[in-house]
């Protein structure tokens, strides 16, 4: 089921306007968090650090989608455990 959900996310969800808005918000927040680092680091170091943050954010978005989807299915099945 995990592979199917990941495929669904990659095919449908990650390319939606809603996720593009989320991407913009995440990118702005990352830029804000790295503002001081950007002033002190080389451009290459800054890009490397930014890419790490972006990779973590991408994993979080995908895992959150899959957890939410699983939760919704359990609710619909009536097997929800709080």
Structural class label: mainly alpha
Order of helices and strands: HHHH
First and last CA, distance: 21 Å
**Cα gyration radius (Å):** 17 Å
Q: pLDDT under 50 segments (min length 5)?
A: none
Tally of DSSP β-strands: 0
Anisotropy-based shape: elongated
Whole-number count of domains: 1
The portion of residues forming beta strands comes to under 5%
Can you count the helices?
4
What is the helical fraction, as a range of percent? over 70%
Main β sheet profile: none
What do the pLDDT scores average to? 88
Descriptors for this entry?
0% strand; elongated; mainly alpha; 85% helix; 82 residues
Structure, described:
The chain has one domain (2-74). The protein contains four helices and no strands. The protein has helices at 2-13, 17-33, 35-40, 43-77. The protein is elongated and about 55 Å long.
Can I get a quick summary?
With 82 residues, the chain is mostly helical. Helix content is 85%, strand content 0%.
Secondary-structure topology with pairs:
Elements: H1 2-13, H2 17-33, H3 35-40, H4 43-77
Helix pairs in contact: 1-4, 2-4
